[in-house]
Amino acid sequence: MKRHSIIILIGLIIINSHLTLRAREMKNGNKPTNTKKVDLVVKRIIDAPVDLVWKAWTEPDQVTKWWGPEGFTSPSCKIDLREGGSYIFCMRAPADMGGFEHYSSGVYKKIIPMERLEFTQCLSDKEGSALDPAVIGMPADFPKELTVVIEFKKLKCDMTEITITEHEWIPGQMYVYSIAGMQQTIDKLAANVK
User: Fold this and answer.
1) Which domain holds residue 102?
2) Which of 74, 128, 184, 187 has its CA 20 to 30 A from that of 6?
């Protein structure tokens, strides 16, 4: 079993234990004791130099090569890479899942080339207008907007460590799915920057 698969499994076990405790509390008529929001953090070492990993996140023709979890594709991507600039990423589901296109968009808040990207992220229409997740049928624990920070660290031997932090998640089913989806997405990124 690959190392990152073991890490995902351990993370899912911890999250599942937390969710099981919350479900027991709710079943007994008690309010959950821990309703604090949490950060989703994924850290990975990519076998590619930092400039290629940076381009994979900041150039539309590179993003479309890897964006989305396993089986999904990215037919389009728009990026205005400047503080205050916006982006729109498109993700298409596989045919056996309906083939629907989903969009996420946001605004870049802080950019330090080759070191840090900070931006907002929300579900959107293809023009980048934010959509309320509840209105489009997403579970209640799906956030309306996240702040995302990606840190790029140059390592020896032309490798890059990336740390992706999505702030303010509500612990729940969508949080678990997002961890798995992010891991699969980063697997695709790693395979495409070689």
Assistant:
1) 39-192
2) 74
